[in-house]
Write a structure and sequence with these properties.
The complex is a heterodimer of chains A (about 400) and B (about 260). Chain A is built from 12 helices and 22 strands. Chain A has about 400 residues and is α/β, with parallel strands linked by helices. Chain A folds into 3 domains: about 1-55, Alpha-Beta Plaits (2-Layer Sandwich), CATH 3.30.70.20; about 65-255, Rossmann fold, CATH 3.40.50.620; about 270-395, TPP-binding domain (Rossmann fold), CATH 3.40.50. In chain A, strands 11-15-10-5-8-9-16 form a 7-stranded parallel sheet, with helices on both faces. Chain A is globular, with a radius of gyration of 25 Å. Chain A starts with a strand and ends with a helix. Chain B is α/β, with parallel strands linked by helices. Chain B has one domain (about 1-220): Rossmann fold, CATH 3.40.50.620. Chain B has helices spanning about 35-50, 65-75, 95-105, 130-135, 190-195, 245-255; strands at about 1-5, 10, 15-20, 25, 30-35, 55-60, 80-85, 115, 140-150, 155-160, 165-170, 175, 200-205, 225-230, 240. In chain B, strands 11-10-9-12-8-1-6-7-13 form a 9-stranded mixed sheet. A two-stranded antiparallel sheet of chain B has the order 2-5. The longest helix of chain B is centred in the N-terminal third of the chain and has 17 residues, at about 35-50. The termini of chain B are far apart. The chains are: A alpha/beta (about 400), B alpha/beta (about 260). The interface between A and B is large, with 122 and 100 residues. β14 (about 215-220) of chain A pairs antiparallel with β14 (about 225-230) of chain B, so a sheet runs across the interface.
């Protein structure tokens, strides 16, 4: 790894020479030249107004896989506690490690928490049967800041050297994980719906890929750690056990405290928007003819005591906000009952709803892909069926 | 101010081939379009330019045909555009893609803001934006649904599952944008006529400062797709047919049975 000067961009101002704390830059022939004193601190890169200094990355070789072991789960916080996806990730980690918390398998399971106050979350981690929890406690971690959090996350990974790192595929997880995996120059697989171990320590990461009808199996054969974000409400939760693990407070370094992100305000969103918590979901798809029809579905959802949701095309058409979208880029759902009207069933959608206990699919096309996963394939016109459902005295109670 | 927008051509159909040997998607011969989320990224850049002045520079990594993506950005209002294109960039995963983009962006001189769509509709990972920010050593905020320029930086609202955070970042920084209130403008026919001849510059491997082939394309990619398969379908299922009224009745009694009604 090293810093190089792009003379084409350089305006020869000499500012980098002055700023370098290691006197590692000299002007030679009018242009800055980096000498052997360079510690790759990056100050010159950040401060150069012309973007003339550039970081040349390490050569990527094969990782020494034996030096990396165990599974690290990222402890995303939500309101001072662990987000429910964390318990699911620990459940999966136990499964990958080859057993539940006790008797202890020889693959260690780790957790990491960053926050203003981490005690409650760290103890929750231990109650899931985690062996060691690293905590980074500082006010900078009071709100999510991708830069500070990724420095701390990478620090935890360098400290533990886990073979596998799991992060929830939440909005925060999907912003933090790529920054951290890039920092570590390793691979990252987004939004996995299944994980398996193969050939010792290789993690097979399975995710819906491409807007078509494909699941992809992805491996990280040369690098460690193997880094994945995992979809919420797909894995089974870890059982609660008598804690046996330890909490390790970690040093919060200056690099972690220095964030380029100033949080001005945090507003809570109304809970009703959270379709992933709904017991009953009424979903509209491309088969809806107009925006007004979505209002009818909302009425049906209200009467069933549930929420309405939509597929991607309706969000792209601007009929519903993204918070109502089910699918790869939206939310995974696991309701008791899901009623899909005019949904054909693209792979991201079916992958996102397959945790539902019972699925009704109303569609005129018996060959629609959604019929393959629906428990009740209702072959008919939604415009004839919905009025029947709404008129019912039963539904008005 | 200088705003760089990362855009990508995506297949406009969902069926594509797969290279059996490498597991890489074969994109040749498939109709392409500009990633719909990148239209929002461009729109966000144009709105900031209208308020604060400056220029919008569109960049993309892809085959030489990706020039079309830049041209579309021109027709919408981009001032300049670059394609980072080389056989050695092919087959890149997130890490190699973001390294290539960040090295390419470094060739363009100083900038204030990088804007990415929140994800593409083909890869769907939403990872490249944050990864580019890490390589450029600048802060980022993802899932931005509202933004406005503010003294030496940008104030943005970040859409998180249970909260909305409003944050301020000093330039240079990177954001990935949600739809929010953005409505992408249509390409202007008048612009199209005037801009047909505007050049799209292509940077290839030899132009890049880092001449180590091992960091680009497939060889710079730590992940490998080893298999593609259709998703599993559920075990037990029933198919119901009949008139609309009959089907509605049947659904009602089933919902009652499940104690939803």
């Amino acid at each position: 790894m090293g810093i190089t000067v792009n003379n084409k961009n350089c305006d020869k101002c000499g500012e980098c020479v002055r700023l370098c704390p290691f006197a590692a830059i000299e002007m030679v022939g009018g242009f800055p030249v980096i000498n052997a004193a360079c510690k790759v601190c990056g100050i010159c890169i950040k401060e150069c107004g012309q973007s003339a200094l550039i970081l040349i990355d390490d050569v990527r070789g094969e990782a020494d896989k034996g030096a990396w072991s165990g599974i690290l789960v990222y402890g995303e916080m939500a309101g001072g506690r662990l987000h429910p996806v964390v318990r699911e990730l620990v459940g999966k980690a136990h499964e990958l490690a080859g057993g539940t918390a006790s008797p202890k398998s020889n693959t260690e399971i780790y957790g990491v928490v960053m926050g203003e106050d981490t005690a409650a979350a760290a103890n929750e981690f231990l109650s899931y049967g985690v062996d060691r929890v690293l905590t980074y406690e500082h006010e900078i971690f009071g709100c999510f800041r991708a830069d500070s959090f990724s420095v701390a996350f990478a620090d935890a990974i360098e400290h533990l050297r886990p073979s596998i790192v799991l992060t929830g595929a939440t909005s925060i997880g999907r912003s933090l994980a790529p920054r951290t995996s890039t920092r570590l120059r390793t691979g990252l697989t987004a939004d996995c719906t299944a994980l398996e171990i193969k050939d010792g320590t290789d993690l097979v990461q399975i995710r819906p890929a491409f807007g078509g009808n494909i699941m992809a199996e992805i491996v990280t054969p040369r690098s460690r750690p193997q880094f994945a974000t995992v979809r919420y409400k797909v894995m089974d939760e870890a059982p609660l056990v008598e804690p046996h693990g330890s909490i390790v407070p970690m040093k919060v370094t200056d690099a972690m405290k220095k964030s380029g992100i100033d949080v001005i305000s945090v507003e809570k969103k109304p809970p009703s928007e959270n379709i992933s918590e709904a017991e009953v979901l009424v979903v509209g798809g491309k088969g809806l003819k107009s925006r007004a029809d979505l209002e009818t579905l909302k009425k049906l959802a209200d009467r069933l005591g549930g929420q309405y949701a939509v597929t991607r095309p309706l969000v792209e058409a601007g009929w519903a906000p993204q918070s109502r979208q089910i699918g790869l880029s939206g939310r995974t759902v696991k309701p008791k009952v899901l009623l899909a009207f005019g949904v054909s069933g693209a792979v991201q959608f079916t992958a996102a709803i397959k945790g539902s206990e019972r699925i009704f699919a109303v569609n005129t096309d018996p060959g629609a892909p959604i019929m393959d996963i629906a428990h009740y394939g209702v072959i008919g016109d939604l415009y004839e069926i919905i009025p029947g459902l709404l008129e019912s005295g039963l539904l008005e109670q | 101010m200088k705003i760089i927008v990362c855009i990508k051509q995506v297949p406009s159909v969902s069926q594509v081939g797969i290279d059996e040997e490498t597991g890489v998607l074969l994109r040749d011969g498939v109709q392409t379009k500009l990633n719909p989320y990148d239209l929002l990224a461009l729109e966000a850049a144009f709105l900031l330019r209208e308020r604060h002045g400056g220029e919008v520079v569109a960049v993309t990594m892809g085959p030489p045909q990706a020039e079309q993506a830049i041209r579309e950005a021109y027709y919408m209002g981009a001032d300049r555009g670059y394609v980072f294109s080389d056989a050695r960039f092919a087959g890149a995963d997130v890490l190699a893609t973001s390294y290539t983009l960040s090295q390419g962006i470094r060739l363009l001189g100083a900038f204030d803001l990088v804007i990415c769509g929140k994800q593409t509709t083909d890869g769907d990972t939403a990872q490249v934006g944050p990864a580019v920010a890490e390589y450029l050593g600048i802060p980022h905020v993802a899932w931005v649904e509202h933004m406005e320029g503010a003294d030496g930086g940008i104030r943005v609202r970040q859409d998180l599952p249970d909260t909305c955070e409003t944050v301020f970042m000093k330039y240079p920084c990177l954001i990935t944008v949600e739809r929010g209130a953005l409505v992408p403008r249509l390409p202007s026919w008048r612009r199209m006529k005037g801009l047909r001849e505007r050049p799209v510059e292509i940077f290839s491997f030899v132009d890049f400062m880092d001449g180590d082939e091992g960091k680009y394309g497939l060889s710079g990619s730590p992940t490998r797709v080893i298999r593609m398969f259709p998703p599993k379908s559920s075990d037990s299922r029933e198919t119901w047919t009949g008139s609309g009224a009959e089907l509605a009745e049947r659904m009602k009694s089933k919902l009652q049975e499940m104690k939803v009604l």
